[in-house]
Queue: 3 jobs
Job 1
Amino acid sequence: MLNSFLLVTPSGSVFEPSVAKKLAQIIFACQTKIRLSTATIRSGHLSTVDNALEILNLFSEERPSIGLSEVARLISRDKASTLRYLNSLETMGYIEQDPFTRSYHLGPTLARLALIREITYPVNRAARSILKKLVADTGETAHLSHFSGESLSNIAIEETSYRGTRVFIDPAEPMTLHATASGLSYLSQCPKDRLAALLGLKREAHTPDTPMTKQQLDALIATARQRGYAESIGTFEVDICGIAAPVFGPSGEVCGAVAVAAPVSRMTEPIRRRIAPYVIEASRQISKHYGAKRLPEQETSQ
């Protein structure tokens, strides 16, 4: 290609072939160097962004502030590079430095962005969108509940329009932990001390099939923990079947559950097996919107 390369001056005259070839080689070398430099800059820029985001992810409820040395250790960088990342984040308001302790904590820019997100796309709206998709995927009523006191309270309900017969869920009625799929899925992810305390509560027999003994509940909770979801068939209301998966909050601990409810007559075992993955995926998506670092796992065993 260089042999056929021609260079023309502004006046229209043509360079001698040997000169033209030499100039073409210089131009080609310069273009190659520019491309390599641009790629290096882009790579370095992405690396800087990745490191900055990695630093932001170090903050948590357990670690609200952190010093330079600890940041450098946790991200495996030298102090000079780490300080540059911290200075950039501080300049943009993503973090602030305490003037007395010299440690860093999250800054006002994150609060502003969080407020904008909540105004423009609130968590409850996001959760409802996920519930609507769950209804579309399963054809059954879906609901989201949060733990409150000694039971679960519904915070969002989406009824199905695909069925003539559907389950009515009373938003004001608490869901007991031992008798509902939502409750069992919540219990399956509780820390041991909280689980022991909750299993020690007085239990009500809602139907003849409500599990009442600790042995029964231990078995149901173990199954839910292994599968990643829980089932309840006629244990809260005689003719209602539920399938639920746990939902996690920003701290990484379980905070509630998402579930599908349908008449027992429709929920054959093949149908329940088909619906379960949709419920688990909905729980994962809602947990993500809650900012959870821990997500529900897909079913590992039946």
Job 2
Amino acid sequence: MGTQGKTRLKIRGLLIAGVFALMALFGVTSAVAQQSKGDNVTAQSLIQQGLDLLRQGKLEQAKVEFDKAVAKDANVKAQVHYLLGNGYIAKRDTAKAVAEFEKALKLSPDKLFIYINLAQAYQMNNQLDKVVETYTTLMDKDPKSALPHFNLANIFMQKGWYAEAVQEYNKALELDESGLSKTNIYMQLGYANEQLKHYEDALDAYGKSLKKNPRNAAALYGMGNIYYLSHQLDKALEQFNKALDIAPKDARIYANAGFCYYYKKDFSSARQAFEVALNITPDLHEAMFGMSMVCKQDGDYKKALDYALKARSSGYKVSDKYIERLKEQIGKKKDKKEKALKSK
């Protein structure tokens, strides 16, 4: 029943809109960008040409322009490595992206935005230990920034280190960086606390996310899950129904509502909810298992077994004991039928 961990980092657009933004980031002086005496081409104009080529996906041609820029002014090396790192990210060549960002950082260790891009490249390259190391270094260099805490918390979520994630999300909220979505932080914090079975803290976080965005169906879904896990079925259904008003095509919500109805012994409503869920998402394994439970309750053991096996093949954990019990019931029903025929 819990919410799916939607904690994966969204890699931000890394290419910067224009060369002047890059000049500001790297602190390039006007003298660097000025036209060289007797020369109509500057290092920065070459970088701009390379950047335009990167936007067109022409990485190799961009590298030629960048090499020319470095030949004119060695001070732009860090800028060039940074841009190449972004180019390799766009090409999904994460190993080369990492190498370029590392070179950029070595040349300009004071440029904090490089740490963010490097950490994201490490993440894409599945070097999670390096991600943690990079964000930790960035925290030491920029202790007032919430972003590294938020991103590091997301990494901890990936690793299943929920207690550590909670700590970092709370730190991000404490630092209160305007560029971060508090709605998203509270959602992640709610899910992490849910995994730790800290249900009151989870409800508090989902509730705060909902205050930021009253039409946040995911927050209502999360609260419904907490109430379900706390055996407060009526409250769970209240939240799921509110969520369905906002997201009427979310099969997961119907499925979870179905489980609430089932344990309230409202088997007709449970069946209806599971059927709607499967109409929306035919391979939703939890809805398949829910239908198995309803069919078992109705004494239709063959259908119950069919749904259970489908759920298991889709990745849902269905115990061997449950399968064996259904098979036993099918066998008993068959024997009873045969005895009845013989007695005629």
Job 3
Amino acid sequence: MDELDFQLASTLFRTPFATLQKVGRSLGVSGTTIKARVAALHGEGVLGGFWAIPAAEAFGCKPTISVFSLHDESGGGILKSSLKRSAGSALSVALNEKTAVWAKVFERDSLAVLTFGRRAELTPRSLVEAFGEPDMVQAQGWPRPGSEAGELSPLDWKIMRGLVRNPRGAPTALAGDAGVTEKTARFRRDRLVDHGWIHIQPVINGARSNGIACFYLAAFGASKGAPPEVASLVPGVAIEGIANPPATIYLGRAPSRAAAVRFEELLHGVPGVKVVGMAFRSDSAWDSERLIGWIDGARPE
């Protein structure tokens, strides 16, 4: 991953629906160059596609993220026996839980799983049986649909279904599936995103990148996330704000893993930053068919 690749990834976070030609113009290169870069990043496993995750509230649920250590309790660096084969094994086991939406494996052998349930901050029993008690449990921090979001209409559900199936699908495809005009499909799509009913993101597996170390960094603030000073210190781009607990998530870059860790250490001394967490994501998976099943009428139990 070089600087152009990183800028491409950052742009896709900010504008997930932009065409490759538009992305290219914003970065001063051709759409053909961007198309080739996207294909290369896919081939290397750095860009794992896109996710479209509906808000848990759409299904009358609460979102919970549970974080597990994949090491044994002795701390000897040995993965738990049932998960020794690969990170993919942990992802597969995690997604066997019927309320799981996505799972992410990070370097340092940790696993995060998002589940939708009737109660907040409650880890499903099947995950505890598979991975042990979680190291951390918290409500997912994405902005929630507010009162201004209104109720989801049958057309909204159709558009949401199309986005889960193809997160970067063209408005023409959404329009055809929903039986509306392209203008209406684009308006409804953007409204769902703006009101927090669905979240679209590229999947960047930073631990696989070469050339530039690509990492995720969370800076937790006292009340409103990370203070502004953090943005000037982190060599990257803010990609997400979290409401609970208040934090800002950055996609960062550094010339090496060691240099990235030094940025984490630097932020510990910034006034207003309570906690800093850094991770190199190595692999991830999500269950789009499960989400489509919920959209079509079933609900997570």
